[in-house]
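Support case: user asked for a sample of complex input and structure output to validate their parser. Sending the pair below.
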Amino acid sequence: MSCLETIQAYGVRALGYGERLLPRSDFTLCEQVTLIGSGMIWNIYFGALALVCGFFLATVVALAKNVPSPWLRKPAEAFVFVFRGSPLFIQFFLAYEAFVLLPKAGIPVNLGFVLITVETAWLTKAWAGALIVLFLNTAAYSGEIFYGALRAVPRGDLEAADAYGLTGWARFRRVVWPTMLRLAWPAYTNEAIFLFHATTLVYFSGFPAWKQQGDALYYANYFADKTFNPFVPYPIVATYFVLLTLVVIGFFGLVNRRLNRHLPQSNRPRLRIRPQVIR
Amino acid sequence: MFEFCSDPEALERLRWFACYLSNGKHMAFYASFGTVMVLLAITAPVAMAFGFAGASAARSRILPIRWLGKGYTAIVRGVPDIVFFLFFVIALDQAFEWMRHQIKCPDWADPIRQGNDFIVCGAAKLPLNTAPQWIHETYGFFLAVLTFAIVFGAFAANVLFGAMRAVPMAQLETAAAYGMSERQTFWRVLVPQMWLYALPGLSNLWLILVKATPLLFLLGVEDIVYWARELGGFVNPRFTDYPHGDWRLFYFLGLLVFYLFLTWGSERVLARLTKRLSHGQATMGGEAARREAQA
């Protein structure tokens, strides 16, 4: 098979299209690069969706943590503690076992006038179950970042908002929230990189890969197991992730520029990238 | 363990659980918590040593050594560490076997890499095929510790390198003015002072290390995750005295609580350590401690 044919056969194999059987012997470099690359689709899917959804929950969590009333504050603190204090690996296992225990046929819900059945089978699939875990996890981590930034919003900004007669939602929307984001952005960029790295854990924890549709590391592990040679597939994953990290940094840098556009050039904070280890 | 456990089927609920939770497999499960603790106890100092060596190398005046130190810290960043965990274990294993092969079987004619296979002579196998089971397990654990130490050493090197640079220049210049040699300055002035600056980063790293321990399972060590899956799964009444359904959820809940406690405890110890280290330092924390002592 030429390399072009390989790409046609395996380019989107991770989504279940193309050739069904994975290569079994005489692995070419092209096959490895193509299949691992097709696995990256899942890493990007998990990372991007969890990040987008997590962003909103994180804002809510940060605000809840900042409220004086313990009825809101304590649950938010507990949420952050549980998800930041335990390994993501265990969270995946736990979530999978919990989802498996749900009745397969669905849960009947009686709405009074009509009986509907809530489907639960899809929760045990990685695309939904792992996404929920990643979403909650990143919400907890970024919630803590946003909370720190929220506490760091300068008092002068709030006083200025008061002086302009801004209150409630308008004050939050126009003063508090943008400043919070601006302050949190460098740390949040790291969190985003960190989250993309964490997506590699999905198929190594409870969630099984269905019909051999896995992420980049799943295929890399497949090749390493078959060839007993870790020196080709793992560096390929590493290269893909370095590229992905660069894209994330580029995108977050653009947002950072927009968030800081009102500041004079010299005062703008630069993004300092410090990718972290496992969570 | 208890005498009344001889006939599990006749037990009432509380006693059944007492027997169930103290059977042989559960003892192995409890021991695996020890494995995790041993891993932490060994890895943390070794990673610190790696990190210290890396940070010192990155400060070296000799260019190749500096490259080595910087390269070590740079490589591990930017790539998911789980990739490293999977990679290093096979790579280290093969590297050890290859070295032993070169020494023990110099007249081996076949190539080591035959297509997809990695073949060394029998005497170079690690551990030897004839070795007892516990040596195989210890070797696996040793590889895991080494992998953890290499990966976390790189992060510690990063933290320590930053901390060494954070020590005020005036301190080092004073040492030089007193006629201390470079070596003396490093050991007597720089190293004692850098810990305060390194502590936030190191405590962060410690918490990450704690949370990375379930990865032992991926490295093939029989750790708590392994046992939780093993014990929690559905057990057929034909093969056991204690049949039960799928209880993995509860076992993993137990692990979750264990980790939460570990994190919570570490946070408290680290807070205390920070307070202690800032004692007598010309920083905000040190100043606060001084005021408190005076008042």
